[in-house]
Amino acid sequence: MSALDAFMETFNSRDVAAWEGTFAFPHVRIASGQVTVQENAGEGVERLFERLAETGWDHSAWISRELVQCGDEKIHFATEFARYRADGSELARFQSLYVMTLVDGEWRVRARSSFAP
Q: Which domain, by its residues, includes 68?
């Protein structure tokens, strides 16, 4: 759970380098009918936070995280998260699946499959 906490905290800080520090590469995102593979840090995240801000987004938070499968080097979490405006009102909620892998002794997000756009 601490790796997922770090993922969300660094995402909300808008610190791309720190956020990508929670990823395992290559990193995969499945959303909006697209499969995106990010081979290395710094690729494919241009304007991410600007685009989110244009929707009224200020921050996100976990609603639920359920460990659904676990092995020695891979974990699957079924999650739900919400996006919020600066005043704390909710913009939207999305379910997703996060695949975590053990990399150099640390759990990192390898893949995300989300119903978020």
A: 2-114
